Structures
1.
Amino acid sequence: MNKTIAIPFRIKTAITLSLIIAAVSFLTMCMRKEKTAKKITSKDFAGSASCQSCHKNIYDTHINTAHFHTSELATAASIKGSFEAGNNIFPYANGTFMAMEKTADGFFQVQYSGANKLQSHPFDIVTGSGTKGQTYLWWDANKLYQLPITYFTQAHQWCNSPGFPERAVFNRIITSRCLECHTTFINKISAPEIPKEDFDKNTIIYGIDCERCHGPGADHVAYQTQHPADSTAKFIINPAKFTRQQSLDLCALCHGGKLQKTKPSFSFVAGDKLADFFTWDSTAREALDIDVHGNQLGLLKLSKCFLQKSTLTCTTCHNPHQNEKNELIVFSQRCMSCHNKEHNNFCTITSVDEKILKRNCIDCHMPKEPSRAIAVFLPGEDKLSSSLIRTHYITNYPVETQKYLDDLARSTKK
Ligand code: HEC
Ligand code: HEC
Ligand code: HEC
Ligand code: HEC
Ligand code: HEC
Ligand code: HEC
Ligand code: HEC
């Protein structure tokens, strides 16, 4: 017997309605998921040249920043090291040597044993603006490798690439995480489980460009171009509107020390929560445990300025669109926006003239320290030479203060 259960009309509508609501909310949930998990492709980017027409001032200063130059196509202009005879050799202890050679086909690192050429690979990509140094990458089909010789700016010399053994090694693979910190975008074409990643080299966007910090901008450029009368921005991220955490997370993607990724590289977009994409080791609690290279956030977080002023972020002191390297007077003015006589928290050192203090808070409170991570062996030396980098642990440094005062006394005596 066919049992039919009579359902009153009102309940029927209610069931249908709730089914519809469930379906709709399921769909929107999927769409939302779709939106956050949307895979970014090279088509989403417009390139910074296209921002120039409407944001000329920012564009013009941005192209002088270390960010913009942190990766480039290898050319005579972008490679800082010398190819001239006498300056182009790096000798290994085992008797072989590397020569940096320029030919009609380009630039190469060539390994020799005596007069025998053993192997040779091209400089394809330059990483590093050259403030501290440059490391070079070469393409083997769709895979990228690091070349064994690096340029070390502090010594104006070629040197063994950091962490490389004392012999020519050409098989050090470059990962998407390396490129995530030094380029704006590249499309990975190999499956996630393959450790030696393949990239689509035509999709690379060199440098840390506008769209690394503002998100892909193709839709913004298309919209603002089609609607020139609309002076409100559409389809672009403005970090000026971020919370403190969002603002710090954007810089920490690359300046936050060693992060372990839990999602594919290049999925994090400005405004996202870093913790949704990475886990990191937060055990190092002493400034001495944190290397001055690559972990400015870790050090800043230990400083009283950061702990006691909840609005302080990286952009309190750094203008992300300008190269302000060595402009210590400008930076000191930013310190004095908080530390001044009116607030009764100005520098307490009394042995130094106020005029001198005001010119340079930095050398005494954020001295340069040797990095353990950027340290290289120079030819013929058995001790590591370290890059000197500003600490972001802002505090009192009596030894550095004495050194600064001694240097000052010496220069005024002259
Ligand atoms: C056709 C003109 C045009 C182009 C091209 C253009 N923009 Fe814009 N942009 C605007 C206008 C108009 C505004 C809104 C007014 C303003 O803030 O200057 C704006 C605002 C912005 C803002 C601030 C957003 C906000 O919410 O206030 C950012 C960031 C930005 N643009 C980045 C970019 C980047 C990056 C590019 C290149 C990929 C770019 N723009 C290309 C016209 C343009
Ligand atoms: C995608 C990675 C990435 C992001 C995001 C990023 N940086 Fe950097 N930053 C770098 C790299 C790489 C360098 C080294 C550039 C070089 O010299 O080759 C650098 C260098 C710098 C420098 C030194 C500039 C100089 O003249 O030597 C400052 C200051 C800086 N970043 C501040 C910031 C701030 C502030 C933010 C957040 C608004 C930020 N960065 C976001 C990767 C990044
Ligand atoms: C977590 C992000 C991150 C990763 C991964 C990373 N770097 Fe860097 N790198 C930085 C930052 C930030 C700086 C500069 C600031 C500093 O020294 O603290 C820098 C500096 C450099 C410099 C010196 C640039 C200069 O002249 O100042 C070189 C060269 C370099 N990196 C190459 C590489 C290569 C090659 C890889 C991959 C094998 C790599 N980096 C991986 C963030 C990163
Ligand atoms: C290293 C990250 C970074 C890069 C690269 C970068 N910006 Fe920005 N941009 C920021 C941050 C952070 C802010 C918000 C600054 C603030 O808090 O006032 C910002 C703000 C802006 C604004 C809004 C200004 C305002 O007053 O609201 C515009 C427009 C803009 N950027 C355009 C560009 C363009 C165009 C480029 C490339 C030529 C570029 N940015 C490159 C980080 C970056
Ligand atoms: C946004 C405000 C702000 C800025 C900008 C700022 N500070 Fe601070 N700083 C503070 C606060 C708040 C404290 C903790 C209370 C105090 O000592 O005044 C502090 C503490 C300090 C201390 C004492 C540290 C210790 O360990 O006892 C020194 C030194 C210092 N700041 C130097 C600087 C220097 C140098 C700069 C610029 C590079 C700077 N600050 C930028 C807000 C700021
Ligand atoms: C209180 C001010 C202040 C804050 C906040 C601050 N910085 Fe700096 N930063 C400086 C000064 C000053 C220098 C040295 C500039 C120079 O010597 O040219 C510097 C230098 C740097 C350098 C280059 C280091 C080197 O020696 O090559 C990087 C990278 C950097 N800052 C990143 C950041 C990041 C990322 C944040 C946020 C986590 C941040 N800074 C927050 C003041 C600050
Ligand atoms: C010649 C080195 C030197 C210069 C330059 C200098 N300071 Fe200091 N500062 C010190 C020393 C050392 C102390 C702590 C010892 C003392 O009070 O004698 C100190 C103390 C401070 C304190 C108080 C720290 C505390 O323990 O509460 C602040 C804040 C500060 N300085 C900020 C600044 C600012 C901002 C500037 C730039 C306008 C600056 N200093 C320039 C060496 C210097």
2.
Amino acid sequence: MNKFELKSLLDDGALGTPAGRIVRMLTERGAMSAAQLSRLTGLAKSTVSTAVAELRRTGMVLEAGNEPAGGVGRPATALTLNPGAGTCIGILIGQTEIQLIVADVTHTVLADKIVVMEDGYTPAMAADLIRRLVAEAYETQWQSPSGLLGVGVAMGGPVNPVNGQVLRAGGMPDWAGVDMKELLGPLFEGVPIFCDNESNCSAIAEMTWGAAQGFDDFVVYTLDLGVGGAIVSGGRVLRGVAGGAGEFGHVVIDPNGPLCRCGNRGCIEVYASFRNLLPEAEAHFGRPLRITDVVEMALGGDNYCRLLVERAGEAGGHGLGLIGSVFNPPLVVVSGRLARTGDLLLDALARSYERYTLVKHNDVPDSARTIFRTSTFTDGACLGAVGLVLRHHGRLVGQAA
Ligand SMILES: [Zn+2]
């Protein structure tokens, strides 16, 4: 076995071969039995068996140990990729920090570093820091960077999926127009780079490691100082032609409503984000507050803060009801700092969702009802950037591989 072999199996071109499909499935989802591999790849059991035998002979696939088969009978043997087969890097380029995670192909995190950045840091500063963090991470782990299979980047703003340029970047205006291939290509020569925005990366983290494991279709709905989200369909995150899919906060619910920071009026975000509710709380308590202060007070039983969270949930549920009528998702993962209030937010959100969406809870059997869950990760974007590589999502077009 060698890493170049794995790299070629992971490439799109190898998808058609049974070995390629098996390796891709193990990379995406982690350890599983031969029976699960057969079901998820659609390959016949005998084909899986032959291909797995060959992959085991080369050392690329190992037995992970025994796992219960989910019923009576012999436990099924879980198959896993050889952790030595290669590493992936995830990088978060956020408004206030840069984070770097190194993980192996079995989804195990080997290194995780985070550096707080000053407001308005430049792309050149980011590139210098990333170069240093990568060198440090590999030095500490005694790993060779030559086994690097790919680099995933979670960007604090939308990225054009065609040319890899950062679009009008919300809180990072200095980054608009930056070409991620030009910025990071020289740091990682010959290594594929994958890039998507933070929300989409967070969705990949939930799908791979968190609240959405086992779901191929779901919606992430983020309630924080802004409102955002992501749409996952058939195990893939929808990006849209310009990288703008899943921007739920800017669905207009009242064209005559208050002005939104995006320039339109009456966006979901105007009503459901905490941007407008936080000043109310500050006026009430007579001191500056952060979202986390309100969350803590609400969890501690403060009635005023509980009502404020419920209001955000109700307004958020209105917007989510519209999204539900479009997608009718089996699962909604609610993320953002407000999600830390758990059922307090979820109950208000689900009640309001029920009022505004088309398919009502009691119209359908249990198995067809939308499930609401809070996210597993408060900051999953960087882990999701590793997931970009593992799931082969968002590879920058035109980058020399
Ligand atoms: Zn807006």
